[in-house]
Design goal:
This protein has 125 residues and is mainly beta. The protein is built from one helix and six strands, in the order ββββββα.
């Protein structure tokens, strides 16, 4: 994992980490991995074009964080589910598209799962 370079000034810091991510939009589903993630959104690469402002469903898997509310957490980490919107879709240099997703409808419990996970990678202090 890459550590953030320089001081992070965002309210919700972002880390460069690869997590399994499923995106559903307009009846289509895509499986990919994140390039970076924060409590407010994710950046990933997908094969198909999704236009900006498209509303999507997101399922993010935080692989090494056990979920307190799930009995089977040891089997695959912790899932975070929310609604999002595509804010940017850019042609990838090797094909496909680099997509920025904003989590526009995420429950606080789901946001807390992401924050708890990211906290282990952020500098203390």
């Amino acid at each position: 994992m890459k550590k953030p370079s320089g001081p992070e000034r965002r309210l919700y810091p972002r880390i460069e980490e690869s997590f399994p991510l499923k995106v559903s939009a307009n009846g289509y589903g895509f499986s990919t991995t994140t390039q970076n993630v924060s409590c407010l959104g994710a950046y990933c690469h997908i094969d198909k074009y999704i236009p900006p402002f498209t509303k999507i469903m997101v399922k993010l898997n935080l692989p090494s964080l056990p979920c307190k509310e799930r009995e089977d957490s040891a089997l695959g980490g912790c899932d975070v589910e929310c609604k999002g919107v595509v804010v940017r879709s850019i042609d990838g240099s090797n094909g496909g598209f680099n997509v920025a997703i904003y989590f526009n409808a995420i429950k606080e419990t789901q946001r807390r799962k992401i924050a708890d996970y990211l906290a282990q990678f952020l500098p203390k202090g």
